[in-house]
Amino acid sequence: MKTKQLLLSLFFSFGAFVAVFAQQADSKSALPYSIDDVYSIITDYVEHPSDTTNYAEYILNQPGFPSLEINAVIAKPQEEEIKKYLTTHVEEVTQLLIRRKKNYDLYFLPKK
User: Fold this and answer.
1) pTM, full prediction
2) Helices assigned H by DSSP within the chain
3) Among 27, 41, 60, 98, which one is least packed by beta carbons within 10 Å?
4) Residue spans per domain, the chain
């Protein structure tokens, strides 16, 4: 009887340990946004600027953001610099996403 209880308690303890260990977040999932999605937003504005994407100009004017030429293709080294910036400047990216939401509401939600 004690052996069964011991085995059962070890089984549940190991299961709880595995469950807690599996929930450990890595550094990429700790960000409140997807770097690739935000990079896509910036790319859309830089390569094809329009009234519906002009909110992205905010991030281009932030200190430390790599300089980009509007209406030009983003080069691979610039892409890496931008993605590095996006991982280290969470507050600025969050503000960009807030501006994106307001822009969406302005241009794409039906007026009542």
Assistant:
1) 0.69
2) 2-22, 35-47, 57-60, 76-88, 90-108
3) 27
4) 26-108
